[in-house]
Amino acid sequence: MSGKEQESPQVEFARLVVESYVRKGTVPPASEAAAELRGGKAGVFVTLKKRGKLRGCMGTVQPVKENVAEEIRGNAVSSVTFDPRFDAVTADELGDLEYSVDVLEEPEDIAGIDELDTSVYGVIVRSGDRSGLLLPDLEGIDTPEEQVRIAMIKAGIHSDEPVLLQRFKISRYK
Questions:
Q1: Between the CA of residue 54 and those of 32, 75, 84, 138, 146, what are the distances in Å?
Q2: What CATH number is attached to the domain comprising 133?
Q3: Model pLDDT for residues 114-127, shown as the tens digit of each residue
Q4: Can you give the residue range of the structural domain that contains 82?
Q5: Mean pLDDT of all residues in the chain?
């Protein structure tokens, strides 16, 4: 059985969107996604890896679209075109991409770093109008201190600035 036959509906739709967008410049309607993705609302991150290395990752913390399928659709396109860390994905890379889709639960405020577990919770750090997010269970991120430090760097928050912390769980689909 090939990897595509084992894909979750979330990943299958993300891949369909990416391949269509990169090859034709169009995206399939959300109605082509599995029915289960067209019901609820949630923030979603779409992550692309190429040969095990990050190739693109974009998402929404809170839902901004009508349903999860629409969130996947928008964030899949953003992952291949708008991730500022990478050039746009090209058609010759499509066969090398691995996909994951993270559907976020509602973030909750926490009092301190001791309420984090990097394997269970993602983190959001805020200071003024700046915020940074790091998903949970990322390779090489082993401590809550490291998780918060990286999220602060992503947000442009200095280590001596006070921050508000939130944590969230995800459902990760491959």
A1: 27, 15, 13, 11, 19
A2: 3.30.1490.150
A3: 999 999 999 999 99
A4: 3-104
A5: 95
- CATH number, position 40: 3.30.700.20
pTM score above 0.90 = yes
Q: What is the pLDDT of residues 40-78, one digit of tens each?
A: 999 999 999 999 999 999 999 999 999 999 999 999 999
Asked whether residue 33 falls in the same domain as residue 53, the answer is yes
Q: Single out the residue in 104, 129, 153 at which a domain terminates.
A: 104
Q: Which of 104, 138, 160 is the last residue of a domain?
A: 104
Q: Say if residue 60 is in the same domain as residue 140.
A: no
pLDDT band, very low/low/confident/very high, at 1 (cuts 50, 70, 90): very low
